[in-house]
Every structure is written in C-alpha cells, then in structure tokens.
Design brief:
473 residues, alpha/beta, Rossmann fold, Helicase, Ruva Protein, domain 3, 3 domains, 5-stranded parallel sheet, 16 strands, 47% helix, 13% strand
Amino acid sequence: METVLIIDDEKSLLELLSVVFKKEGYGVKTNPGTPKAFELIDQGDYDLLICDIKMPQVDGMEILKRAAQRNPLSPAIMITAYGSVKQAVEALRIGALDYVVKPFDIEELKILVAHGLEGRRIREENTLLKKTFHAEASFENMIGKSKAMREIFGLIEKVASTDSTVLVMGESGTGKEMAARAVHALSRRRDAAFVSINCAALPESLLESELFGHMRGSFTGAVADKRGMFETAHLGTMFLDEVGEMAPWTQVKLFRVLQERKIRRVGGTDEIAVDVRLIAATNQDLKKRIEEGKFREELFYRLNVISFEVPSLRKRVEDIPLLVAHFLRKHCDRLGKKMKRLTPEVVGLLETYSWPGNVRELENVIERIVAVEERETVTASCLPAEIIGSRPKDEDPVALKPGFKLEEHLDRISRLYLQEAGQAAGGNMRKMADLLGLSYRSLRYLMDKYQIKSFKRIESKDERNGNGISPER
C-alpha cells in the first residue's frame, strides 16, 4: 500500500483529505502543521507529500526543501491560497510536482496524486535498473560461482557504498585491479574518472611527478606544467597497484595527501585540493615490510581502512571451468576462430594444476591454445609442459616447499584420480568405486565434495551452449 503524507493546519481539510485518500486505497499519515512534521519527513515513511505552503507554526516551503533532500523520489503537491501563486511557482523550482489553489477540486487532486505515484514507481524502477546494470557491468570480467568469489562480490558491493580508502590484497594475477574497478563502478563516483598506476613500474622521481604533477623547469625535461594523476582523478577514484613497492619519500607525500586532501606539484608552492577515493593494491605482506623498515606504518593504517583479499585460483578450483569457458569464448571471438572443446583429461589437468600465476596465467594458456591449435578438440598434448608435468605420480616424492598446503595438495590428487577413474570406467559409478577401492557411498561423497556430477560421455548442456567444456560437471 502506497502512503500519502498530508500536512495542513486546517483541521477540517486534513480530515477530509484523510477520508478521501483512504477510500482510494492509500495509507494516510497526517500532521496539523506542527514541528513534528519534520520528523515525519526525516523518517521517509511515505510515498507522496501533500503540504500547505502557509501555516502558522511551520513554513511549508521549508518542509518541501527537507523532503527534497531526504526523500527525493517521493513527489510533493503543494496547497496554496489564492494570491500566493508566486510562492507556488517557487515551490516548483525547489522540486514540487505541482500545486493546487484553494478552494480546489478534490477530483483534480486525486488525479495529481495518482500521476505522482505512477511517476514515483517509474523512477524507482529506473533506479533499480541502473543499479542492476552497473552491478552487472562491474562484475562482467570477474568470473566465479565459488563460495570465495561470492563472498568477494558481496564485500565489493558493501565497500562501494562507502567512500573510504580500500586496500586490496592478493597474489599477482588474481584480479585485484578488476576488483578495484568494480568498487568504482558501483560507487557514487562511477561517472568520474578511474585512474590507475603501477607503483612498481616507475622510478621514484618519475612516480612522484606522475602522481602529483610538476611545474615547468622543476627538473630536467620539465618543459611545461603538468597535471598529476590525483588532479586527473578529482571526484573519481585513484588506483595504486603494487603500493608496497613505493619509495619511502613518496610514501610520505602520499600520507600527507590522504590526511589533508591536498597535493602540491613537484617544484610548486601552491596547494591544490583534490576529492579522490583511493584504492591501493599489493601482493606483499605490508606488516612484514613495516618490520623491515620498507613501508611506513602510518601510511599502512591510512590505507587499511577497509581491506579484503582476492582469493588465489588454487582456493577456488570450481571456478576453473567457468573461467576456461569465458576465455575460450573471448579469444575465439577476438581471433575469429571456431569455438574449441576440451577433453575431460584437459579439464582434469587444468583443475589439478597449482596456477602460480593465477587467473592471468590461465588466460594466457587459453589464449595460446586458441591462437596456435588448429584442431577443434583440445587434447592434453596442446597444454604447456609444466601443466602436463604437474600430474602427480605414485613414485614422485612430495616436495615440501615454502607455501605448501597439504589439504590443497590432497584435493588436487583426489580430483585427478576421480577424473581418471571416471574415464576408465566409462562413467559407471560401480566400476569407478572398484577401481578406486572405495565403497559406493564413499565415492558419492567425494564426487559431491568436488562437485563432480557425471562422467558419462554424452553431449552435455555445456557443449550445447558452446562453452567448450566437454564432461557434464
């Protein structure tokens, strides 16, 4: 039920309008023109406002201004006495939908209310559609249905609604910049610039000039004044990748910018105010860098207002088939080639490989396959040697290297043997259980755990959709 809020100091008119709009099927709230009217406006629990302009205790124009600020989607219809039309026109300028002059026709007012509420519904739908569009566009290149990625998507949406500084952590190639772009695209700054710079790619002197700009003659080669990236990103978002590699003196300047919201160009004396949201990213342990004296502690706490970690590909193995399908489609379309299909063995190898380069490495492998291989069906021989060589063998010793995780290692081995048993048994579950020395129930448990639905070799739904993954998974 849509609610109409009516504010008028004439008791008889207030009662009449209350009865009329209740009969029309609306919820009705009323106020006799007292200061409590502002509380009702602030609560925002109404869909349309009807308000008298002139009342002894409160100013109707002030109520309208408050309503326009607090509840801009809800239309307002102002009531005015004859001879006060000038004020009514001013009300339209402030944001009122329309006005009626006393004495007015109730039927006319009912029509205005109906039209106003219809317009509100349309604006709400448009707002929702825009929000949905921005959300979909933001996550377009972030592929995943795993629990880890669903949590990241939820965090990004929450973070985007704030204007706080964000620190994105994660290994190289996990998609930290994509996450930063998603935060920007979902934020109120989305219509302004997103400016990105890799702090590790530039020497200290050049990085400082790129970030803060410089004045003509401030150093050799400075032949003209130059705006820095902070100025370019004004009202938008600045993304600093590999912030852990920033030199100490530049860290000092960045801390000052975050604290004072002002920059000073290299060689300049004037301070320039900037309104920028900062998102920083790193693949390093910044606390360890602080202990080593390579990163300033005060800057870390300025950057670490809100932080989250983009998971490595090893921690979201179930997303690999989705990512492979996405990259196959992307590069086949780009190169004008027919969609390729992967054999079950290839899928198993891709899922059991450790992917030290994460999503970036996976995309590079798929791009190479699309560019080099002429056959429509991709077999294991098409994969790089390091992926084929990653297949665990019974006689191979376990290499306990730094970063080794037993659970992940066992998961990769289990997936591989389930894949091989499925192919050897032709998808027959009983034969698979015999080959693996498992009970039928234990096999079902492992297949559910690793989200393996079937190994039966038929044309799968994924094949019919052309995503390049052959087994039903």
